Batch of 2 targets.
Target 1
Amino acid sequence: MAELIKLLSEVEEFKKEYFYRNSQAEENRQKDNQAANRAYLSNLHKKAIIIQKIWRGFTARARFRQMVKAAYFIMKMNFYEEMAVRIQRRWRGFFVRKNIHNFYARKSYLEGLSRKNKLVRRELDELEELQKRERDCLEMVKKQTAKVYQAHRLHHLISTKQCPGVFNSPFRPAPHEMELLLRQVKYHAPTRLAPRGRACLLSLPGPRASSFPGTLGSPWVKTTGTAFSSRPTLPPIASKKQQGLFREPGEVWEQRVHCPDLTSRLQTSYTHLEEAQNQLRQHMSIRLPAGKLGTGSMLHHLSHSSTYFTQPAFSKSFR
Amino acid sequence: MSQRQIIQVFEQYQKSRMQFVQTVADLAVRPQNIEILQSAGVLSMLRPLMLDVVPSIQQTAALAVGRLADHSDDLAEAVVKEDILPQLVHSLASQNRFYKKAAAFVLRAVAKHSPELSQAVVACGGIDALVLCLEEFDPGVKEAAAWALGYIARHNTLLSQSVVDAGAVPLLVLCLLEPEMALKRIAASTLSDISKHTPELAQTVVDNGAIAHLAQMILNPDAKLKRQVFSALSQISKHSVSLAEMVIEAEVLPAAVACLKDPDEYVRKNVTTLMRELVKHTPELSQVIVNCGGTAAVIDYLGDCSGNLRLPGIMMLGYVAAHSESLAMAVILSKGVPQLALCLSEEHEHHIKAATVWSIGQIGHHTPEHAKAVATSNLLIKLLELYMDASSSEDLQAKSKKALKSILQKCTYLPHLEPLLYDVPSNILKHVVCQFSKVLPHDSKARRLFVTSGGLKKVQEIEAEPGSPLQEHINAINSCFPEEIVRYYSPGYSEALLERLENYQPA
């Protein structure tokens, strides 16, 4: 019995225990459930991390591989470019030295330039010299013609045998150069001489300009020469109106003079007989060469001869 | 009263008018009479006489007015205000050639003074009438008209454009072909005045074929014509490369170079100006001029003249040298540097000196070789003097400083650099010391010479701020020499030695 009672009490106690435990379990159920959930989630997390780890590792390795590839490529490119620069450097140096900054070409160019400069300088100096000579020459010719003209105007100051002129002072060792010039220049009446002198002044430098003589004497001799030679050729009828523009006045004059002589029929003059007699008479009376003077036909021929003014016999006959 | 007597009255009146006009015209020749004539109211008297029935009176009155206007711009303004111009322009078209000449003279005299007066001439239709006069047969009329057009075109772009618009250029080019020397001269000068303003105007002149005719006239013996021809060519070529090339293509060059020996100095000046204008555009054009010996001729020309005539030659050398180093070498080989040194010492005016200094800088700044050529002519010292001279103008100082700096930066010829160590402002000294610091490490002979000539001592005496470039250069120089030598030459070394002597106790 006692045992039964003990058992009963134990049952009772067991029941209590049971209730207690049940209630405990009931109390903790929520908590336990949550804990179980958490464990599962953490488990899942762990798995996810593994997956991510592997994936990330994979992509990073892939990216790294790419980077290495690129770096290698860049390195290679750098190397190639460096080599290319080396080649270009050599080539450009060679090319420029060969063609553009060629030392020898430059040297020869500079030499040529200095030669050219020398040449130009010499030519310009020559040109200047030439121009200067030309100007001097023109100046001289002008001066000489002016002097000759002056001498024409001052011809009355020439010294005579009796009385020395102004330019020929007896106190001088030698006569003045003007005196010498005066002696060489012929005297002419100023009325007729003035225009001719001016014409002389104007016309002379023209032809002389092209061929300039270097010596001092030549222009002077030429001017006096033209002054002398031009005068006698002119016929002594300057006051008359000249014939035509088509023929030279001298030629016309000659024609006029020669006209009766040229006819074939009349070989001798109409007054030939008389003249001959006259001539004979003169020869008899005066035995002089000036006897020619009186002859009429001879005068015609003499009138246009070139020695008309400068014949010494002519002047002698007046004495 | 008989008919004779009546007519006599008129004749007398006409005679006295004529006499009055002629006397006024004669009086107007002298500038000192102008004021009295003006106060006597001469213009209002002459104005009706310009409309006189007798042509000779008209003409002489116009001549008198022209002379009056020629002398003073007050009277020229008065002529404009009196409304004389419109009637002049009107009669310019209808009257005989003597009157035309006188009227063109009046227009010229009025237009000469100022752009406003020229504008007044343009406003009353003067240009068209003058251009019509250019078509006249008489060379005197043409000359007067061309002259008046030139004076109008001279003032500014607008006026010269209006001359061109009136169609004057082809007629002026035709005038160049006339046999009269005076007409040729005036036409050339007018073309020069027209083309000097803008490239477009110059292009118009060129398009009418002026260059070929101008180039032909270079060989003309007349000096005044040559002056105008060269002036026109330089005014044309100054604007652009293409115009300059056209001038070169007209084969002006050998003849132009020969004209540098012309007896007339203005011909020579204008030739040099032409060369300057040609050269300044491109290296190729400069090369053409250098190759035909232009530089040598210009350098010789610089020796012949003086004063302002030298200026274009000096500038031409500078322009040539500025283009490239081989051209600068060509200038040096043509003995340009000694000639420029001569110019620098002979000339007194600051603008010429400034131009010379600029040219020297252009020659020397290319390579050490060029700098040496400049230095051997002793120009560095001279440039320094000009820079230091307080009386030099600002421009001259700036130019000489720039030239000195650019030459010093290339100069490696030490004997000529050494004098520059003494009495030099620090901004120049910097460059000198820099050159030494570059050369000395590589040249043992120069180092030796530098010590014996006292250069090192001078360098030790320089007081430079620590850290400045000058101090760095000095340090670079000092590092080329053994320490003892540097110390020996430092200032205060003797005192240090004496001090050591005093402190020394013999054992």
Target 2
Amino acid sequence: MSTRDLFTFRNGHFKIGVGITAVMLVVTAIAGFIVLPFAQPWVQFANVWDAICSAAGVPRRAASVTAPEQSKRLSDVVLTSHTLSRPSQEAIGRGATLAQRCAICHGPTGISRADSPNLAGQYAAVIYKELHDFRSGARTNAVMSPFAVNLTDQEIADLSNYYAYLPRLPAYHPTPLLPKPNIVIYGAPIRGIAPCGACHGSLDNKTGSPWLEGQSEAYMKAQLQAFASGERRNDISQQMRNIARAMTPQEIEQAAAYYASQPPDVVKAVD
Amino acid sequence: MLANRKLILAHFWFAFAVFGVALTLGAWQMFIRSPIGTWLSNPELYYRSLTAHGTVMGYVFPTLVAMGFGYAISESALEQRLVGVRWAWAGFWLIVAGSIMAVIPIALGRASVLYTFYPPLIGNVFYYLGVVLVVVGSWVWVALMAVNLRVWRKAHPGAPVPLAMFANVAGSYLWAWTAVGAALELLLQIIPVAAGLKATIDAGLARVFFSWTLHAIVYFWLMPTYIAYYAIVPRAIGGRVYSDTMARISFILFLVVAMPIGMHHTFADPQVGAGFKFIHSAFTALVALPTLLTVFTICASVEIAARLRGGRGLFGWIRALPWDNPMMLALAFSFVMLGFGGAGGLINMSYQLDASIHNTQWITGHFHLIFGGAIVIMYFAIAYDLWPHLTGRELTDLRLIRTQLWLWFVGMIVTTFPWHWVGILGMPRRMAYFDFGDPAIAPQALSVTFSAIGGFILLTSGIIFLVILARGMRAPQADAGPYRFALAVHQPATVPVALNTHALWVALMIALTITNYGYPILTLALTEGTSVPAVYVGAQ
């Protein structure tokens, strides 16, 4: 007997094997695609085909769900880890010229003495996203918004590349001024808070998250409070709002103070 | 007689050496996130270790054991020299090279993505290429098993294929097909992104591809264990296999229903339709069938041995069993763990019950109990059984072997039972750190501490295992005779072609894969706008 005699309905094993498998498949398919969808009283289907499509996961917009109205603008920037990853020298040069107008708050070398964010060495994707958000109105600030509103896409990219090119405050901390607070290193797993350091430096960095070390304590505190109150809302998928809302006021102060303390004094003195 | 002993020993030694390393990492992980360890302040180190542990234990260790055991089965059950020895060595070295290639980026912290890859997390491309090499190396083995069986069939037209080889080849075909899912995920999705050709990835589709591999891979891990149940245990304890036909049916059932069930791993995933989840759930229930058949057949086979040894009464025969025989002990431990693990598995595969334990520590407890417990303890037994035939030296210290098996059993129970429990209490898995000072989880601290202690018992047992094997290499020489497998009560003279070949069952396996995976994969692949930006591990 060869395999040729196997694949024929004259062979009992073939008949039984294929038959049982086919019956199982048909029965489970009927149950999964027809019986069970209709067994859900809270879902209405127009007909059997509608139920089958639903159970098969055919992509479509559910009729009963309407997208919630957005009263305020949300960020529409899409970032990947390749965003602005290979800048040209010309772009950096153009950015340097454009940056003259930013220097009054953000410092001539990108290091601010006015509780504005330090931009030197900040990730290009971060500056790119914030400028876009200021321009679109997803993020607003009395001082910053008027600067951003007239920038072109090209200018935003050039500025981002220029500041990313400037030397950053070193992340090397021979004598940290403050011990690492729990919220930065562990987060608070019970409240669903990831460690700050997992995205913003000290442990790791994730695309779109700013490097926080050496930023102004007052600025970071204000931003966390703005996220917590919902006043600032340009974070993608409410990532920061969810975290800031769950943080205690004490944790907000600890995180801001810790990150602000990170660059050694000697670096600040050079500026 | 085993002609290629060096080849088989190389597989086993490399498998057990990397097992030792991964076991140590595992014990350290249990310790460091338990209340008795002081937290490192760096979750990255934890995930690095976890990736290494999973990659070795999931891909390298069981694959090498299945391969080494497969070569031994091919030579001894078919009583013919292995055809394609050079290819076999090439496959082995591919796996060694792949393992090293994968481990270097992990050790450097460039691939802390865990062994299940978790896109859109993307690690260093050499990690994935290393895994591909391991899989390719194992496919060489699959081909060799098919070729060797073919050569034997030509020489023995119409003769029944020995059960061990029939099961071994079934396992190799299962692996060949199930590995295709992860291979598709790696080649079409992850590697192009890791190599910098793309910056976005369809994480939902990638997860569906991985589920194709993720469940049947467990049955590939299980195959050597089941072969040991049927083909080694009855012989080792002086009994016979109760039914050769039942054994064959179990193995072909694994071939058919182990594959189209992986979506019970994606019950919480929105990109898969509920109808397909139900079908996969129903087929997962079917996979309990070959295991129940096996438990029945093996218990009957063991009873035969007991009655041959003078056992009497309804249950009195249990006392007559050779309990000082390590194989008997390993079988009993394996069955107990299989029972508890299988019961837990029934909960995982139920759509509604799964919701209460999905992504909790219950799942990690479950697969450690099944794989680390029921399966790996039989890998130990296989090694003990084969060692004298591979080294030409006797393993004399039976007491130490029994101690090792006892420690593994006790350690696995102490590790996994509290692990299940904290899962029911809602403790999430894949977390590097828990603040047990928090009142919300403080009551779980005791259970987690027990788990960690169990981890150290397992580590002790693993070290003893390696010591026994190493000492076995230097024991006095003794001829162990030819390596034989158990005979059935009614040794088959002829076997129907359906139970003597794999073609029909492989065809059904592929057909069910198409019906159960075809539509979800096609729609996800053809739907626009389903990709998300990749998140690069360690990228700045």
